[in-house]
Design a protein that fits this description.
Blueprint: E1 18-22, H1 27-37, E2 41-45, H2 49-57, E3 66-68, H3 70-78, E4 88-91, H4 100-108, E5 112-114, H5 115-124, E6 133-138, H6 143-156, E7 161-165, H7 171-176, E8 183-187, H8 190-194, E9 203-206, H9 214-217, H10 220-228, E10 235-239, H11 243-251, E11 256-260, E12 269-273, E13 277-280, E14 291-295, H12 304-319, H13 324-332, E15 342-347, E16 350-354, H14 361-368, E17 374-378, H15 388-394, E18 398-403, H16 408-418, E19 423-426, H17 440-455, E20 461-464, H18 477-491
Parallel strand pairs: 1-2, 1-4, 2-3, 4-5, 6-8, 6-9, 7-8, 9-10, 10-11, 11-12, 16-20, 17-18, 17-20, 18-19
Antiparallel strand pairs: 12-13, 13-14, 15-16
Length: 494
C-alpha cells in the first residue's frame, strides 16, 4: 500500500526539502504555490511538456519550479535518501494508488500526500494564520450543488466563506487568499479523501453512496470508507434514507450526528413537514425544536434530489451558526449550475435536457424518473459500475435510447435484458480505438441528438444523462454538455 497521510515530514519543516508534485492539472498549481510559500523546493512531473509549460507560465512572479517528465521522476524516487532524491510526493488526486510512480514512492519509503492533505496539515499547524473552519461535502451525487448552497448560506450569515476543493479554488490557494477566508465549504471527492487521511473536517456530510469509481478504489467498501472520512469531526451529517450513508453515519465517531431525509424528520434530523416545507427537529432532549426553513417549492433545482441537497447544506451551515432566515434567503437566490438537469430548449413539443453531470447510474436515475417519457442518450466510461439495476428500474419510462462512448455495449446488454422492446441505437466513433479526429466528439453528439429527436414525440424529453464519465470522448462533462447544447441548436434550426 502506498505510504500516505500519517507518514512524512513535519509540515512546519518543509523549508529546503525537495517535493515531487505529480500532475500539472487542477491541483498541481496550487500545490506548487503553497509549497513555495512554505519554503520547499517543488519539482513538477507530468507526461505532457505543454502542461508543465502552461503551469509554469501561470505562476505568480517569483514562484518557480523545475519541470520534469515521468521517467526522470521515477529516477528521483529511486535515489531517495541520497543526494538528488525527494523528501515527499504530493499527488494529483486522480492518480491511483497502484500507479507505478506511487508504488515506487512506497517502495522508497517516501510519503504521498494529496493537495488536501498538504492544506489540512498546513492549516492545522496555523502556518497561514489561525486555523480555519472546515465544512466538507461528499457523496456520489449532489456534491457541487450542495457545496454551492452551503457557501451561499454561510455568506448570507456573514461568514468569510469560500467554496473550494473539487469546486472553485483548490484548498491550497484558499489558504493563501487575500482577503482571508475563514470558512472552507469544501467539496471533496473520494480520490481527494483517499489521499488526505489526516483530514478531520469540523462538519462533514455524506449525501449518498452508490457504485462509482470502483475501478479506482477496487471495491465498494473502499469507496465508502473514503467517503466516511468526512464524518470524523465534531458534527457528522448524512442522508438518512440512503442505506450506505445511513450506515456510515451510525458508525461515525462525531459527537453530533444529524440525519437528513425527505420525509418527516425524527429527533436530531432535518426533513420535510407536511410536504411543503423543510424543517429541523431538535436533539430530542426536552421539547423538540421544530424550525421551518422555507417551502419545498422554493428550492432549486426542484425535486427530491434538490430538496435533499438543500436540507444537507442547511444542516451543515446551521451547525456553525447560520440561522433559518439565512438558509431561506440563500436558497431563494440560488441558481443551479450548468449541465445539471438543465432545460436547453423545447422543439416541437419535445424538451431537450442536459444532465451531462450525471456521470454514474445513481445520478442518471434522478433525471430519468423526473416524469414523462424519455429518449435517453447515454454512454461513456462506466468506471466499474453496474448499470443493470438502473435500466431495470427506468425501463417503463423509455421511449428509446441512443448509446455513445466506450462502454455503450454494456448498457446495450442491460437494455436487451431488462427493456427488450425499447428501440436502441448504438453510435460508434473513432474514440473507440483512439483514432478520433478533433471534430469526432461533436459529430457523434450531433448524430445522437438527431437520432433521439426522430424517436421522440410531443411531450417527450430527450435527456442527456450518460450514467458514465466523459473522458473517452470529451475533455470533461462540461465539454460533453456544451456539445449537446450545440447539437440541440442544430436540431432546432439555429
Amino acid at each position: 500500500m502506498t505510504a500516505a497521510g500519517g507518514q512524512g515530514p513535519d509540515v512546519r519543516a518543509l523549508a529546503g526539502l525537495r517535493v515531487l508534485v505529480l500532475g500539472a492539472g487542477v491541483s498541481g498549481p496550487g500545490a506548487v504555490r503553497i509549497l513555495h510559500a512554505l519554503g520547499a523546493e517543488p519539482i513538477l512531473a507530468d507526461s505532457r511538456p505543454e502542461a508543465i509549460a502552461r503551469l509554469r507560465d501561470g505562476l505568480p512572479h517569483g514562484v518557480g519550479c523545475e519541470g520534469i517528465d515521468l521517467e526522470r521522476a521515477a529516477a528521483l524516487l529511486g535515489r531517495t535518501g541520497a543526494r538528488g532524491g525527494v523528501d515527499l510526493v504530493v499527488t494529483s488526486p486522480g492518480w491511483r494508488p497502484d500507479s507505478p510512480l506511487l508504488v515506487a514512492a512506497a517502495t522508497a519509503g517516501v510519503a504521498v500526500w494529496g493537495d488536501v492533505e498538504l492544506a489540512w496539515r498546513a492549516d492545522a499547524a496555523e502556518l497561514f494564520g489561525p486555523r480555519r473552519t472546515w465544512l466538507a461535502v461528499t457523496g456520489t451525487n449532489g456534491k457541487t450543488t450542495t457545496t454551492s448552497m452551503l457557501e451561499a448560506m454561510c455568506l448570507e450569515a456573514g461568514m468569510a466563506a469560500r467554496a473550494c476543493g473539487n469546486i472553485g479554488l483548490p484548498i491550497t490557494d484558499v489558504l493563501l487568499a487575500e482577503p482571508r477566508v475563514d470558512v472552507l465549504a469544501a467539496e471533496l471527492s473520494s480520490f481527494q479523501l483517499h489521499w488526505a487521511p489526516s483530514c478531520r473536517p469540523d462538519v462533514g456530510v455524506v449525501l449518498n453512496v452508490a457504485e462509482d469509481h470502483l475501478d479506482w478504489h477496487g471495491s465498494m467498501e473502499a469507496y465508502a470508507a473514503a467517503k466516511a472520512q468526512v464524518l470524523t469531526g465534531r458534527v457528522a451529517v448524512a442522508g438518512a434514507e440512503d442505506r450506505i450513508a445511513a450506515r456510515l453515519l451510525a458508525a461515525a465517531p462525531a459527537a453530533t450526528r444529524i440525519g437528513v431525509r425527505l420525509g418527516a424528520p425524527r429527533a436530531g434530523e432535518y426533513g420535510g413537514i407536511d410536504g411543503v416545507r423543510a424543517a429541523r427537529i431538535g436533539d430530542g432532549e426536552g421539547d423538540d425544536d421544530e424550525v421551518a426553513l422555507l417551502p419545498a417549492a422554493d428550492v432549486r433545482p426542484p425535486g427530491p434530489a434538490g430538496i435533499l441537497d438543500a436540507l444537507s447544506a442547511a444542516a451543515v451551515a446551521m451547525s456553525v451558526g447560520a440561522r433559518p432566515e439565512h438558509v431561506a434567503a440563500a436558497l431563494r437566490g440560488f441558481t443551479v449550475a450548468a449541465h445539471r438537469a438543465e432545460l436547453v430548449d423545447t422543439v416541437d413539443g419535445v424538451r431537450f435536457v442536459d444532465d451531462s453531470k450525471a456521470t454514474n447510474p445513481h445520478a442518471a436515475r434522478t433525471s430519468l424518473l423526473a416524469g414523462g417519457r424519455m429518449v435517453w442518450i447515454a454512454g461513456g466510461l462506466l468506471k466499474g459500475a453496474d448499470v443493470g439495476p438502473l435500466v431495470a428500474e427506468v425501463a417503463g419510462v423509455l421511449r428509446g435510447v441512443v448509446l455513445i462512448g466506450r462502454d455503450r455495449g454494456r448498457i446495450a446488454e442491460a437494455l436487451a435484458r431488462h427493456a427488450p422492446t425499447v428501440r436502441v441505437v448504438e453510435l460508434a466513433s473513432g474514440d473507440d480505438d483512439g483514432a478520433a479526429g478533433p471534430d469526432e466528439p461533436q459529430q457523434t453528439m450531433d448524430r445522437a441528438v438527431a437520432e433521439a429527436a426522430r424517436m421522440a414525440t410531443g411531450g417527450d424529453t430527450v435527456l442527456l444523462a450518460p450514467a458514465a464519465a466523459s473522458m473517452d470522448m470529451f475533455t470533461d462533462y462540461g465539454h460533453r454538455g456544451r456539445s449537446f447544447v450545440l447539437a440541440v441548436g442544430r436540431v432546432a434550426g439555429r
